[in-house]
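quick one before i forget lol
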Amino acid sequence: MKNFARFVAIVGLYMFCSMVWADKISGASRADFLSNELIIPCVQIVNSDDETLNNRFFDVILERRGNSFNYELISAESEDQAHCQRVADFADFDDDVDTEPGAAKILVRCEQRTNRSKISVDGKDLVPGDYSATVTSGDGSVPSSIQTTVGDEVEFDFDSAADDVAQGATEISADFIQNNAVDAEIADANGNTIVSVANVLCSTRD
């Protein structure tokens, strides 16, 4: 409890100081027995009494105490929220543990550039058959062509690049992605929405 309270205090201090995103921690979580540090990127805060912290992601470093497996928090810095959300979304999609048995899963990845919009929509744990996807951003909405599952999975690509469209991606405008966020849904052959997700944050590149 003391460590959690300290964590909240450190996080609050970093946010109060308006520090830039850390990006000092890369890769997966790891325990370094040379430096005696436990390094964990993209820790999401939930159920905090401080509403400004909830659902935000932080990189944290904990220091090992002696030769034990007890660790004390020594650093917490705000991370790129869109990046961490993508990591969390992929982990949830790829995990074989079903939080909702029998429920279909959806994974949306999107990228916004100065002259390009790119979106991919993957579905899994679907009943084998034909499906379509629709992506929405701002006031714009574009449906895909029908795709047939491979096993229980299906994939859809949307792109403004002519080369990708020529390879089968559904065409969208270069400025399709608005406010750096996308909604998406997968529907069956009868038009019934099977699974959907809202407000997926997109990566940005020049």
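fyi Helices lie at 2-16, 81-94, 162-166.
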